[in-house]
Amino acid sequence: MLSQTLNDLHLVNSEDSEETGDAFELIAEGLASTVSKTWASVDNREPQLLAVKTSTTVKKWAKEPHDIMKECRVLKSLSHPNVISAIDSLLDRAQNTMSIWMPFIPHSLSTLLDSAHFVPQPKATLFSPVKDPLSNFLILTHSLMIQIINAVAYLHEQRIAHRDLKPANVLLTPTGRVTLIDFGIVWDGSRDDKNGDLWPENEDNMYFEVSTGPYRAPELLFGTRSYDAYAIDMWSLGAMFAEFFTSLIPSSPSSDDLTYPIYVTSPFASDSGSSTWNPSACYSRSSLFDASRGEIGLAWSIFKIFGTPREPANEEEEAKSWAWPGFQSLPDAQKVEFTKVDGAPLDEQLLPNLPTAAPDDANALLDLVRKLLRYPPKWRLKAEDAQQHPYFSSAGWLAPEDLTLDNISSGEPSKVGADGTLGNLLLRALGFV
């Protein structure tokens, strides 16, 4: 059990905070909460860097449906190496806030995806050749995806749905261990008693204002108050997994960057090796879907790929990506009339960094993503079934050195490969080595 006070935590000033006397450094501030980091000693052990998430417990000041009370309760009930752990919590009744103390983890999947080093066939660099980039890319991709799906499967087994899966909420330790964070809008189906929640929900009155931008499932865009929260997670996983293979685009290149060719549409997708790239330039990863123009724009972005939803007339049409029985019954489905389109193939045109040089791997990945991104929630692959998908059962992935194999359900990983540990591959892909 975690204590409701911080008697076992002893703050120590970091070098950066000695001048100000403040032991906390603000690292993120949003409408719903703030996150700081601090050095602290737990149970008189060596000081470690911790992250502290703080949010109001007053309903009128809280950002609906974000609920730190529920987040804290859920985190206390969970125990998995790929899910963030709550070291302690503090309910400050004087300030009407709650703080959750968690391990500080330095890297994120969003940072990795934006790295120009994390591609299957990078352009030749002026500084050093890339050694076996395809193999390293596939191993790192497999290793991270397997951990992510294992974490989600564990949550769903506990009847917990995250409802905000996205690259920024997937942290990575230096050893390559995945850690899911930010359970602020979690769905807790494990209990009927919602007393103490800031924003109580039941199966007939759920928030559709959950998930983020391009990772939102389409049913959330049409006003439903009763939906399968676990299927929401699976759609988000499909969008996130696809993003491992989308384009990298330059983000606001400086004048120094202009001495190098800029690949605007699909950089690093070609293996010609005839061009060079600037490894110090800033890039951003394209999402599969475009949420920059609001919910209607996001819906159309999805429909352009998978087709405008409609009722299938027979079993043959049920296999079509546009098939969605019951779509018209969603509360807002008939408020906007979309142009009827059949969609576009989900292939290397949309995923230019798909490892086509490894066709079996690429085909298995496409099959997985398609099964996660089905319109009808009940047709989407469930987490426990996704764990057994051929993409995850294939060989060639590594377990983090600090992850016990008891929590591994796919394949038989080792901890050291031909090019070192998973941590070595991760740091190389982040451009640190």
From TrEMBL:
Cited Gene3D superfamilies: Phosphorylase Kinase, domain 1, Transferase(Phosphotransferase) domain 1
Cellular component, GO, one term: cytoplasm
UniProt keyword annotations, A-Z: ATP-binding, Kinase, Nucleotide-binding, Transferase
Pfam families reported for this sequence: Pkinase
SUPFAM superfamilies: Protein kinase-like (PK-like)
Domain Protein kinase as annotated: residue spans: 21-392
Biological processes per GO annotation: G1/S transition of mitotic cell cycle; regulation of G2/M transition of mitotic cell cycle; regulation of gene expression; signal transduction
Molecular-function GO terms, alphabetical: ATP binding; cyclin binding; cyclin-dependent protein serine/threonine kinase activity
Family: Belongs to the protein kinase superfamily. CMGC Ser/Thr protein kinase family. CDC2/CDKX subfamily.
Name the UniProt record assigns to this protein: Kinase-like domain-containing protein
